[in-house]
Amino acid sequence: MSVREVLTFPNPVNDYAARTTAGLVVVLAIVAVAVNEPIVYGLLALGFALRVASGPTLSPFGQLSVKFIVPKIVRKEKLVPGPPKRFAQAIGLVVSGVAFVLSLFGFGLAAQLATGILIAAATLESVFGFCLGCTIFGFLQRAGIIPESVCEACNNISLRNPAAV
């Protein structure tokens, strides 16, 4: 497998895998807030960095979701466009990165508050299937900030793959 293949974000993405990964993020983020140590915030940020770079390919949570939890437990597939999910992961990387840096400089409460934002967003995704980052992506695309060419399927419902449930 080439570096280019490894560093490619999938498109489309199984929404159930994304939701499962978000649930795992919620668990780690809660641990990060409870423990309030830089190493845990760092692990949270590293997970987001790996998912931004390659989707589930390099991410332990992504691999667990895609290779075990979804096929063996959830057993559903609903394909959604990849670019909004990658954008959401990038937002998670920024927020978790901020939490990591804050914790390194001794601002534990601020790191916990930043991580609380992640917990809220990941819970929305995991429990309700509402991707806050994807919604922001759509808003930015409609405003012309993100070009339509980044995600044609986001604008044209006929390009989307039908969900197999």
Describe the model:
The protein has 165 residues and is mainly alpha-helical. The chain has one domain (11-159). 70% of the residues lie in helices and 2% in strands. It has helices at residues 3-6, 15-35, 38-54, 60-74, 82-104, 108-128, 132-142, 152-155, and strands at 13-14, 79-80. The chain has a two-stranded antiparallel sheet with strand order 1-2. Helix 2 (15-35) packs antiparallel against helix 3 and helix 5 (82-104) packs antiparallel against helix 6. The longest helix is centred in the middle third of the chain and has 23 residues, at 82-104. It is globular. The two termini are 31 Å apart. Mean pLDDT is 92; it is low at 157-165.
Strand order of the largest sheet: 1-2
Please indicate the count of domains: 1
Number of helices: 8
Estimate the mean pLDDT confidence.
92
Give me the strand/helix succession. HEHHHEHHHH
List keywords for this structure.
70% helix; 165 residues; globular; 2 strands; mainly alpha
Write the layout of secondary structure elements.
Elements: H1 3-6, E1 13-14, H2 15-35, H3 38-54, H4 60-74, E2 79-80, H5 82-104, H6 108-128, H7 132-142, H8 152-155
Antiparallel strand pairs: 1-2
Provide a compact summary of the structure.
The chain is an all-alpha fold and 165 residues long.
